[in-house]
Amino acid sequence: MDLDQLRTKACRTLALINLIERSNDKCKEILKCSYYPIYGKPNEQSEMVEFQNRVTQRLVNNLKRTTT
Prior knowledge:
By secondary structure, the chain is mainly alpha-helical. It has one domain (3-67). It has helices at 3-32, 35-39, 44-67.
């Protein structure tokens, strides 16, 4: 691998890590948000958390696949 390829791979890895962190933060925000208990449907908050967890898991799997 030359230097440009290493730099590109490192940038992709850092971008995936950033997306994973943002996805985790979004999940925490959904849990803290007062909208869902007041205005949302009964299971809407848990569905949103589950969806965000699936997004995070896909990103983690992608990161594992690209780093090995």
